[in-house]
Automatic annotation (TrEMBL):
Protein name as annotated: Fibronectin type-III domain-containing protein
Xref: InterPro entries: FN3_dom, FN3_sf, Ig-like_fold
Domain of life: Eukaryota
Organism in which the protein naturally occurs: Neobodo designis (Flagellated protozoan)
Domain Fibronectin type-III, residue spans: 47-147
Length: 202
């Protein structure tokens, strides 16, 4: 980059997160000869946050985030890690892409009252101590699970066989069934572990 004589500050953009850089400068004399490069400083850019889906259901999903570790930085200027606030934006289904602001101590957030079997895109950024917004992360795409369809296969004197399915299927590990009579005199909740590899759920 070249600057006129009067320039005293300049902001470099599009640097890589968590990367070490060395800044060199040189100047042109009045007779238009260039001096040798001289090192001004060494610095490490701030590490970016990474997002992951930690839970997902038919009408809800959870997002968690953490900041990556900086590389070895002995002798380098390091950024202030202080965060003023976080911002999440989710887009999809009936939701409008309105930002959700969260305090700096927050490390996860759960979205509720969503539509089943719907794709959502979540973006994330944070406001630094200096009052600068970081770049938004690439969207994390989440699809809520489809509602299961249950049906009765067999009814006997003392038993009932119930089957269920989803489209697309999910890797369930536990199922809970509630059975009650029409007058509510009988009510029973059954919870059982299931094999997620089984294609037949009953």
């Amino acid at each position: 980059e070249e600057f006129p004589v009067g320039v005293r500050t300049y902001t470099l953009h599009d640097l890589r997160p968590a990367t070490a850089y060395i800044v060199f400068v040189r100047y042109a004399t009045l007779i238009h000869t260039l001096k040798q490069w001289s090192e001004v400083c060494r610095f490490v850019t701030q590490a970016a946050h990474s997002l992951e889906v930690v839970a997902r259901g038919e009408t809800t999903f959870g997002i968690a985030w953490e900041r990556a570790t900086l590389p070895e930085s002995v002798g380098y200027l390091t950024p202030d890690p202080t965060i003023h606030k976080f911002e999440l934006t989710v887009d999809g289904g009936r939701l409008l892409p309105e930002p959700i602001e969260l305090p700096p101590a927050t490390r996860s957030h759960t979205f509720v009252d969503l539509d089943p079997s719907t794709e959502y895109k979540v973006r994330f950024r944070c406001l630094t101590k200096e009052g600068r917004w970081t770049s938004k992360t690439k969207p994390v795409v989440v699809r809520t699970a489809a509602m299961p369809e249950a049906k009765v296969l067999h009814v006997g004197e003392t038993f009932v066989v119930v089957a269920w399915d989803r489209d697309p299927p999910e890797e369930e590990t536990k199922v809970q069934l509630e059975i009650s009579s029409s007058n509510r005199n009988y009510n029973r909740v059954v919870e059982a572990d299931i094999d997620p590899q089984r294609t037949e759920k009953r």
